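Provenance

Sequences were taken from public entries as deposited. Structures were produced by running a predictor on each sequence independently, with no templates supplied. The record for N(4)-acetylcytidine amidohydrolase from Psychrosphaera ytuae is shown for reference.
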Amino acid sequence: MNSITFYQRFEMDILSQKKTITIRDASEKDFVPHSIVDVSTYEDGRWFCQLRIVSVTPISFSELTDVHAQQENMTLEELKQVISDIYPETPDLYVIAFELVK
Ligand SMILES: CC(=O)Nc1ccn([C@@H]2O[C@H](CO)[C@@H](O)[C@H]2O)c(=O)n1
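Predicted structure for N(4)-acetylcytidine amidohydrolase:
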């Protein structure tokens, strides 16, 4: 896995380093820590940066905390809503931590 997409609405948060994690399902759990991935928008495939994968950590929906929400630049309520919309009925998730490659 050497690329990832994000919804366009998160682009500025990623580029300003306010967003430092993403939470995905098992289909995106195979990113290798320390590897560099190309990042583009989900909507139109426009490349906008590279990220270095820091870690991939399993988590269940019920274990999400304010710390995760802060790393997503959201409230916990917002984060839970976003994840429920994208991954309805997916209890097993993965926290992918990343840093911006400059
Ligand atoms: C195709 C596909 O699944 N794309 C996704 C999936 C998730 N996310 C974001 O990751 C965080 C936690 O899920 C939230 O900020 C989500 O909006 C995203 O931008 N794009």
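The first helix runs from residue 11 to 15.
The two ends are 20 Å apart (CA to CA).
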